[in-house]
Structures are given as structure tokens and as C-alpha cells.
Amino acid sequence: MSRKIFNPLLICFGAFAIGACSPETGVQSAPNTVVSGEANIGGAFTLTDHEGQIVTDQTYLGKPMLIYFGFAYCPDVCPTSLQKMGAALTLSKLDPDTFHSLLITVDPERDTPEQLALYVTANGFPKGLRGLTGTQDQIDAVKKAYIATGQKVEDPANPEGFTFDHTNFIYLMGADGKFVDIFSGLDTPQEIADRLKLYKKTGH
Ligand code: NI
Predict the structure, then answer these.
(1) Per the domain annotation, does 1 fall within a domain?
(2) CA dihedral 112, 89, 170, 139 (to 10 degrees)
(3) Would 187 be classed as within a structural domain?
(4) Rounded to the nearest whole angstrom, what is the distance from the C-alpha of residue 2 to the centroid of ligand 1?
(5) Ligand 1: distance of its center to the CA of 191 in Å?
(6) Residue 52 belongs to what domain range?
(7) What is the value of pTM for the model shown?
(8) How many domains does the chain have?
(9) Which of 30, 68, 115, 152 reaches 20 to 30 Å from 20, CA-CA?
């Protein structure tokens, strides 16, 4: 059932359908890379978690990971997706401690460890969610590795005058750190839960 081909249409449609925080530019910023065979998503990163600890991809080996790219000031897209992640884990009836749940910010300037520490405990978010931030270079590198986008765009409707346009995907990475599957705003919590159970049963 694993989607072996990373379909750029999924990215465009996903970014548009669920609305990255600015849907119109979300479509333009979607990557148009076609990867055949095993999707080449993920890789090494070095970031800082919401307790101020330096963490890397190696920190999280040994358990499968659910990863989301977003930011704490996002008005609705990020909270909806993080609640979906939490709901999927609950529906799966798997022990949430058997997964690492990570939020990687696309807004490192405002999303300090302290800010993320407050955010990750929000109602409905995955139990044990870790918030990760870093320097702009570190964030740019991890976005590139995951073919995720997140860029500051003008937004006159926002009191700050800007928001972040970003892709809206939940990545499932295996306990070995390798890519397993990706979920968009079109996937329901039950569909994600079923996929998590399948992964736990089969290891892929
Ligand atoms: Ni968002």
C-alpha cells in the first residue's frame, strides 16, 4: 500500500486543497520534482528542541517518526494538521510512546524553544510532541531534505503584516529513519491510523 512514487500532483493539490497558510502562493512554491522508485525524502538534520537540547536525526532512530512542518503562529492549518496527527495516533490504539511526533518550525525567528514549549502541549496535539527549531540555515537544510517549503509572505490581513506559506504534509519515517509514507490534508485521521498500524505490523 506504500506510495512508492512521490507524485508532484499530490503536493500541488495538497498544498492547494488544505491551503498552506497562503494557498495561492502555496501552489507556486510546490516542488515539481518527480522521484521514481523509493522516494528520496528525509536525511540528516541538526536542530534544537523545545527544551533547548541539540538534536539530530540520530536522536530519533529506533522509533518511527511522524513529522510536520509548520509554525506556532499559524492560525488554522497547522493546528488542524497537528490535531489530525493526534487523532490518528488515538484512533490507531497504538501506544503514542512508540512514535516520535515532531513539529519542525518554518518560522525559527519567532519559534524559539520557549515559544514551542508552550505550543506543543496544545489540546489534541500528539502526546509527547517535540517542537524543533534552529538557525535559518538549519531550517532551510531540513526543509530541503524533506522537500518541504515554508517562506515568509506578505499578508495585509495579519496584524504582523506577514505569514508563512508552507506545505501541509505529515511524513511517516521508519524506525530506521527512512521514508515510509506521506499524508496530505486529504487523508483522514482513520486513514493515517490504518497506515500506522500497517507499518507497526509489517515494518514498512
Ligand atoms: Ni500553518
Answers:
(1) no
(2) 20
(3) yes
(4) 26
(5) 21
(6) 17-23+39-202
(7) 0.84
(8) 1
(9) 115
